[in-house]
Amino acid sequence: MAAAAAAAAAAVGGPQPPQAELPAPGPGLDKAATAAHLKAALSRPDNRAGAEELQALLERVLSAERPLAAAADGEEAAAAGGGGGAGAAEEEALEWCKCLLAGGGGYDEFCAAVRAYDPAALCGLVWTANFVAYRCRTCGISPCMSLCAECFHQGDHTGHDFNMFRSQAGGACDCGDSNVMRESGFCKRHQIKSSSNIPCVPKDLLMMSEFVLPRFIFCLIQYLREGYNEPADVPSEKDLNKVLQLLEPQISFLEDLTKMGGAMRSVLTQVLTNQQNYKDLTSGLGENACAKKSHEKYLIALKSSGLTYPEDKLVYGIQEPSAGTSTLAVQGFSGATGTLGQLDSSDEEDQDGSQGLGKRKRVKLSSSTKDQSIMDVLKHKSFLEELLFWTIKYEFPQKMVTFLLNMLPDQEYKVAFTKTFVQHYAFIMKTLKKSHESDTMSNRIVHISVQLFSNEELARQVTEECQLLDIMVTVLLYMMESCLIKSELQDEENSLHVVVNCGEALLKNNTYWPLVSDFINILSHQSVAKRFLEDHGLLVTWMNFVSFFQGMNLNKRELNEHVEFESQTYYAAFAAELEACAQPMWGLLSHCKVRETQEYTRNVVRYCLEALQDWFDAINFVDEPAPNQVTFHLPLHRYYAMFLSKAVKCQELDLDSVLPDQEMLMKLMIHPLQIQASLAEIHSNMWVRNGLQIKGQAMTYVQSHFCNSMIDPDIYLLQVCASRLDPDYFISSVFERFKVVDLLTMASQHQNTVLDAEHERSMLEGALTFLVILLSLRLHLGMSDDEILRAEMVAQLCMNDRTHSSLLDLIPENPNPKSGIIPGSYSFESVLSAVADFKAPVFEPGGSMQQGMYTPKAEVWDQEFDPVMVILRTVYRRDVQSAMDRYTAFLKQSGKFPGNPWPPYKKRTPLHPSYKGLMRLLHCKTLHIVLFTLLYKILMDHQNLSEHVLCMVLYLIELGLENSTEEESDEEVSVCGPERCHDSWFPGSNLVSNMRHFINYVRVRVPETAPEVKRDSPASTSSDSLSSLQNSGTAQVFSLVAERRKKFQEIINRSSSEANQVVRPKTSSKWSAPGSAPQLTTAILEIKESILSLLIKLHHKLSGKQNSYYPPWLDDIEILIQPEIPKYNHGDGITAVERILLKAALQSRMNKRIIEEICRKVTPPVPPKKITAAEKKTLDKEERRQKARERQQKLLAEFASRQKSFMETAMDVDSPENDIPMEITTAEPQVSEAVYDCVICGQSGPSSEDRPTGLVVLLQASSVLGQCRDNIEPKKLPITEEEQIYPWDTCAAVHDVRLSLLQRYFKDSSCLLAVSIGWEGGVYVQTCGHTLHIDCHKSYMESLRNDQVLQGFSVDKGEFTCPLCRQFANSVLPCYPGSNVESNLWQRPSNKSIQDLIKEVEELQGRPGAFPVSISSETNLSKEMESVMKDIKNTTQKKYRDYSKTPGSPDNDFLFMYSVARTNLELELIHRGGNLCSGGASTAGKRSCLNQLFHVLALHMRLYSIDSEYNPWRKLTQLVEEVNSQQGNEEQQPEVPILYHDVTSLLLIQILMMPQPLRKDHFTCIVKVLFTLLYTQALVALSVKCSEEDRSAWKHTGALKKNTCDTEKSYEVLLSFVISELSKGKLYHEEGTQESAMVSPISWSPESMEKYLQDFCLPFLRITSLLQHHLFGEDLPSCQEEEEFSVLSSCLGLLPTFYQTEHPFISASCLDWPVPAFDIISQWCFEINSFTERHAEQGKALLIQEARWKLPHLLQLPENYNTIFQYYHRKTCSVCTKVPKDPAVCLVCGTFVCLKGLCCKQQSYCECVLHSQNCGAGTGIFLLINASVIIIIRGHRFCLWGSVYLDAHGEEDRDLRRGKPLYICKERYKVLEQQWISHTFDHINKRWGPHYNGL
Hints:
Layout: H1 2-12, H2 28-43, H3 48-63, H4 66-73, H5 82-102, H6 107-115, E1 126-127, E2 132-136, E3 147-148, H7 149-154, E4 162-166, E5 171-172, H8 207-227, H9 237-258, H10 262-273, H11 275-282, H12 289-307, H13 340-350, H14 357-365, H15 369-376, H16 383-393, H17 398-406, H18 411-423, H19 425-434, H20 438-453, H21 456-466, H22 468-481, E6 484-486, E7 498-500, H23 505-508, H24 513-523, H25 526-534, H26 536-547, E8 555-556, H27 569-589, H28 598-618, E9 629-630, H29 635-649, H30 662-683, H31 692-702, H32 711-724, H33 727-737, H34 757-776, H35 785-799, H36 804-810, H37 826-835, E10 836-839, E11 853-856, H38 858-864, H39 867-873, H40 877-894, H41 925-939, H42 947-962, H43 991-994, E12 999-1007, E13 1025-1029, E14 1035-1039, H44 1040-1055, E15 1080-1089, H45 1091-1103, H46 1118-1121, H47 1133-1147, H48 1149-1160, H49 1173-1178, H50 1181-1211, E16 1236-1237, E17 1244-1245, E18 1253-1262, H51 1291-1305, H52 1308-1314, E19 1322-1333, H53 1334-1346, E20 1360-1361, E21 1368-1369, E22 1371-1374, H54 1383-1387, H55 1394-1406, H56 1420-1435, H57 1450-1471, H58 1490-1501, ...
Antiparallel strand pairs: 1-5, 2-3, 2-4, 6-7, 8-9, 10-11, 12-15, 13-14, 16-17, 18-19, 18-22, 20-21, 23-24, 23-25, 25-26, 26-27, 27-30, 28-29
C-alpha cells in the first residue's frame, strides 16, 4: 500500500524524498541508465525504496499522456499544446515503458530473451476477416476448427477432407489444441509437448514487467474512460474511432507483448486478473483529482449502459441498483440461483390469460430475480473485466479483440476471460442491439466466442460455475422481447399469442445471429446439452422462446386487389426459424441417440406439448382453421415431431406413451395440413395476388437447406396423427382442406362453393399427391440413415445430372454441423459411387465448358427411380417433368418401353411397427368411395380430371393392395356393425374385398339447370353431398364434411365428460356449405359397377380397343406363383391397370373369379361421345395442348438441327480441317466475274463501282506474333520471387531493337522500308465469309443504332453481328470488281526472259495510278476503300503505327500498310502450325479475305509512289556506277544497305506497288530476284557465325571451284566470294577481342551448312507461297517436313522444271541471278563495308537475323492451383506496394496487376485494362487469383471465360468458395490458348459486357 500512497502523493506533487535522486526523463541514454538503476534497486531484498521510486517515475511519465486524452475530449484541445506535442509525449511514454521493461538493456534483446522461454505448444495465431485459413474435417473434433496456412502446410493432411476458406469473422489457429483437433493433424512445430525441456524463467528477467505493466494498463483504461463521453444519444462512431486511433500505439504495444510468448503472457495474465492491483489503482479514493474524475466517468458509463436499462419495462419489482455507490451492491452471481419453484409458479400466472398484452409480456419475463441479476448487474473486480467492458462499449475495436484473443494460449487467462465474457453477456447483447454497425460487431463477437465455447471442457466449467445456459437463454429471450407483436393467426381480436415481427431490424439484419450461434455451439457439447435437457426450468423458458416464432410472418390470401407492396420479410422468418429454433433442436437431438437418454426426450416432449396447448388456447383454436391464412412457421410442432421420431428410432420409446389424447392430435394435425393445402393452392395460382414472394415461401419451405427442418417434420407429424386418428375422419379432413369435396361426385356437373373451376383440377391433383406422399414416404418411419441418403441422392440425380458440389448442397443434412458430418463423409462417397456414374468434362469445339457431372446408373433408373421422392424434393415443378423425361429417355434407349411411361410404382421399406396404423387410411370406406367416384368420373370423361389424377388413384389402389392387413377368407367377411350402417357403399373396410363390391344405384343432388336431369346419364350433385343408393333402394346420403364433423364430435365425446352438452350435427342430406348454388333436385344414377369392373373398362379405354384385357393367369398359371414380373415394372396406364388386377387376383381367389367373369361378359361399349358444344370443351384440353406442344417441339428440333448444320459449315471456329469453302472461293476458273450474295437483301450479283459488295470482317489489333520466342523451353508462370519473366527474347522485342538500331545510323525514310512492324498491335482481319452490299450494311447499322436492347457490343464503334451467322464484326471490306481468281492472266506461262520481266516490273511500279479506275474520280468503291483503310488504322493504337522520327510522315503510313499484309500472312502461318507441310486450301479457306485486303492496301500504297531513285528494285537488279555510292557516303545518314533489308517486307512492298490484278509471271520474277538477295544474306550470316579458321578454309575451297561451270549456283563458290569481299572491310576484324566468346563449337559440315541456308530461307518461302495461294488461288502441295524447302521452291517457280531430284537437293540450285552474281554481291558487300568502317559491332548484329521463331504459347501453369494462390494472394503490387484486394496475373507475360484497383489507375484506366492495351494491344487474358477464374478483356468489352483449374470431381470452384484442391485441366488450357492464337474470343464466348475501363 505504501507504494501506492507514495505514488499518489507524487502525483499531487507532495514532497517525496526519493524524488531528488531521480534524473529528469531525458534522452535515451538516461532512460537506459535509470532503468538499470531501478532494476538494481528492485532486485534488493528490501525493495520498497526502489518500488516507490519506480512508481513516481511511472506516474510522471505516464501522466504525460493526459493532455492527449483532453484533446480527445475535444473540450480542452488547447491544453494539448498542439497535436505534435501530444504525439511526442505519447511516443516518449512508450519509449520509457520499453526501456523500463528491458531493465536498461536493449528492448530487442529483451524480446529475444523472453521468447527463448516460450513453452507454447499452441499456435494461437489470431486473424481478422478475409484471412485465408484451412479447415480439415478429418482432423477436427469441433467443426469450427481452423488452421493458419503455415500450420496446415506443415502438417500432413494428404487424403483428408479439408478445404481452404476465407474467414468471415476472423478466427484463430487451433494447431496444438487437442481439445479441438486430433493430434495427428498438428504441424511439425506444435507436435512436441515442450513444457519439460524449457528452463524456468529467471526471476529478474520479467521483474520490471510486473511493476510497469499494471500502471500501463491502468493508464490505458483511464484513457478509455476519458475518451468515452456518454452523451444523451449513442456516441457517434466518429468520436469513438478518434479515441481508438489515438490509442493505436498503446494497444499495439500490448499486442507485441503477447507475441513474446508464454512467459510474458503469464505475467500479463497475472496483471490482468489480479484483483488487489485493480482495487488499489482504480478505486478513485485518494486525493488525486485526475483519478477521481476518471472513476466518476466510469460510474457514469456503467449507469448509462443500462445496467439499469433505460428503455426497459423489465425492471419492475426490483429496486434500482444504487449506481452511485462504487460497489453496485446487488447480489453477484454467487447469489443468483433463482429457484425453479419460482419459475414454475410464475409460469402458472401466464395461463390466466386475462391480462393485457404488454403486462402479460412483462410478467412472463420478470419471472425470477435470477434474470434480473443476469441482465442488470456488473461489478468489475479486475483490469480484465473492465477492459472487456470498454471493449464492448467501443463496439469491439479490432485491435482490442486481437489483443484479448492473443492471450488465449495462456490457460489461466482463458478461464478468467471466458468467465468475464459470460458475465458481460447481457451487456454485449444490449450494445449489439443499439449498434449501427451490427454486422461488423457480430463478426467480432463471434470471433471471440467461438474460441471460447468450442472447447468442451471450458464450456462445461463455465456452465457449472457461471450459469452459462441460464444466461444465454435469458439473454436471447430478452433480445426477442423487443420486437414482439400480437399474432393475427386464427382469432385476430382476442388472440393472446405474441410473435416476433419479421420486419424489425433485429430479425431482418440477423442481429441475433452471434448469440444464437454461441448457443448452438455450446449445445454441441454433450455435457452441456445434458444439463440443458435435465433442467426443467430452462426447457420451459426455451419453449417460451420458441413459441415467439410459432405462427410468425402470417400470410393472408388477397382475394380482390393485387397486394401493393410485396414484403420480403419471409427471408428473415425462414432464417430465424432455421437458426434460432431448428439448429438448437438438431444440436439437442444429436445427444438423444441412445436408450439411456429417454428421459430427456420425455422432458422435451412434455414441455413442448404444454407450450402447444398454451398456444392453441392463446389463439382460441377449436377445430376449424381460419380460412385464407397460412403461416409456414410452426417450430413447436416441429420440435415435437423430431423428438418423437428420435424417440422411436433411437431410444426405443413406446410411441403411445408420449402421444397426447385424440383431441390434441386433431388440433396438432390442422396447421401442418393447412400448409400442405396452401402449397397446392399456391402452385394452382390461387395466391397470385399476393405477389411473387408467396411462391418464394413455398419454394423455401421445401428447399434442400430447409426441408429437413420444415416439410419433413410436418409430414411426419401428419403421418403420426393419421396413424392414431380415425381414418375416415382424416381422409375427409384432407379433401376438405384441399377444397375439393364438391368435385367428388358421380355427376358430370357440380358447383363448388369454395373453389373456382379453373383451380379444381390442380387442387384435386394436389390432394391425391399429398395422400400418396403421406402414405409412401418412409423418411422417419423406418428408413436407416444410409437408405435415406441413397433415396435423397437418387431423387436429385433423376431430376438432372449434378456436379459433386451441387449434390452436396442439395442433399439435406442436419443443419447442425456437429450432428455427424454427412457431406464428404465416407458414406456419401460410397453411396454416390453406388448410384451414379461420373461423366468427365468434355470440351466442345463451340467452346461451352462443361463440368464433371454425375449421372444415375441404368439400374437406378430401372429399380430405384422414385417419383414420390422427386415430387417431395422439387423446388420447381419443371424438375418433376425433367425427371420423367429422363426416365422416358432411359426406357426408350434400353428398349424397355417405347411409349410415354407413367411414373413407376416403387416398393417401400417396411414400416416401423409403431406406425402400422398409418395403413388404415388405405382401408377406410371414405377413401374407397373417393377412389370409386374418381375412377367412374374418369371413365365417363368428366371435366377437370387429368391423367395425373388417374395415375395417383391407381397408385393409391396399388398401395392398398400391397399393404392389405387381414388375410381374408373366401367367404364374404362382413365387418358391418350397427354404427357403420351409413356406409352403405361398401360392406367392409378392406380394400381387397371392397374392390369386387358392385354398386348399383347412387342418388345425387343436381342443380335443376343441369341438362342431364331428365336423362339417365350421370347427373350432377349438390355442393358437397355424395349420395348412394344401395340395391335395397333405401336412400342414404353420405357427406364427407358432415361425416368429418360427426367423427370429430365422437372423438371429443370419448375424451371429455361433458358429452351431453354436445349437439351432434344432423347428418341429413339438406346440409350444405353456406352460400350454396341454385335449387337442387335429386336424381338417381344407375351405376352397376365395382372398382374391378371400372378398372377393366379403363383398360379398354386406355388401349382404345374393346375387350383388350385378358387375364394373364389363364394362359400361364405360373404368374400367380411368382408375381414379381419385370415386364410390369415400367409402362404406361395400361401396364399399371394390368399390374393392379394381377395383384388383386393374387390377394383373393374371389377377386380372381370376378375378374374372369367380367372379362367373359362382352363388355358393353363405353358411352358414346355425343359431341355437344359443352362437351367439346371437356374434350381434354390437356390433350390438345400436349399435341400442340409436341408439334412445337418437333419444329424446334428441326430448326435447331438446321441451324446446327449451318453453324458447322459457316462458323466452325475451332475445327478448321473439315471446312467447306464458301462463296468467295467458289468461282470457277472460266467465270469472268465473281458473284456475291448479299445476306441482307438476298440478291446476288457482282460487286460494282457504284454498288460495291463487301465482306463482313472483324478487325482487331493483335500482339500474338510478338509473343513468339526463339527458345523451345516454355515460359512458366512465376511462383517464387526468383522466377520473374523478362520479355527480351520475344519476337516483338527483337524487332523493336532492330528498328531502333537502324534508325540510329540510317536515313529514317529508308529504315521504314527495311523492316515490318505489326508484331505488336498489328491489325488482324478475319471474316465469317458472308458478303453484303455496303449500302444495305449502312441501313442495317442504322436500325441497330435505334434498337436499344443491344448488349455486348457498341454500335457507335461500328460493331455489329453478321446478319446471317451472328458472328461479331466491326467493318466491311469492299470486294474489288472483277474476277476473284485471276485465271486468264496466269494460266498462259509467258516465255519472256527474266530481264524483260524485270524491266516491265520497274515500269509498272513507276506508273502512278495504273488502276482500271482512275482514283481522281470519286466512286462509291473508292470511298469505301478509304473508309475501311481508316477503320484499319483506328483499330490499333497510335504507338503501334508511328515509328518514324518525323510524326505523320507518309513513310509511316506506307510502312503500316504493308505491315498489315505481313501480319495477316504471318498469323495464318501460325494457325497452320508454323509451316506449310499440311498443304491443302488455307485453313481459313472459306474465310480468308487476304485477296480483298490486298486490293485495298495496294490502292492506298500506290498513292505514295517511292522516288525511283530509292526504289530498292533498282539496287536488286542493276549495277550502280561507283560515283553514286560515293555521293551516298557524304550525306549525313546513308540509306540502309540492301543486305540489312528484310526480304519479306521487300516482297510485300514490290507486290503492293504493282497495279492490281498482278500477273503471275511478274510475281514469279519478283520472287526470283528477291531470293537472290535472301540467299546472299544467308551466306553473309553464315560467314559471320563461323570462326576465323572455318572462314579461311571455305574461302580457299570456294576459290578453287570458282572456275568450274555453273559457279553462280554453287554455295561454296558464292560463300568464298562473300567472305573475301567482306574481309575488305572491318566486319571480321573486331573478333580479336572477343575470340573466346564467338568461337562456336559446331564444326560445320556441308550438310549442316546446307540446312542452315535452307532454314534461313524457309520463312520467306512460306510467306511467299501463302501469298501466291491467295493472289492466284493455287493450292498448296502437302509434303514431309524435310522436303518443305524443295516443294515450296518448285511451287513458286524458283526451281527449273528440268531439275532432277536424284542427287541430294541443294538450295543454291534455285538461284536465278538477274545480273552477274559476283558483281552484284560485291556491290552489296561494299555498302556493308562502308558502314562497318565506323560501327563494326552493330554491323555484325544487324546481319545475324534470327529467323526461326517458335509458335506463341501462353505461360505454363503449375499442376496445383494452391502454388499460385499461396504466392500471389499475399503478394504486393509493384506499382502501389499494397496487397491488392483483387489480384490478377497476365497469362501472356506474367505481369501481376490489381484488378479494379483504384490505387493503380492512370488517366481513368484501371490497371488490367491498361495492361491489356500494352501487352496485347487490347486483348488481355488474366487469371483472377482469388477466384481461380480467367477473365478476357477485348477492347472495351470483357467476359468471364471460366476456369482452367478443376477439382477432383471435374468442377470449377469460382471464387474458391468450396476451397477444395484444384488441378490444372490441360484440355481447357489448350482451348484457351487456341482461342487466343486464332483470335476467336469474340466468336466463341457469348457473355460480353462493357468494362468502362474499370477493371
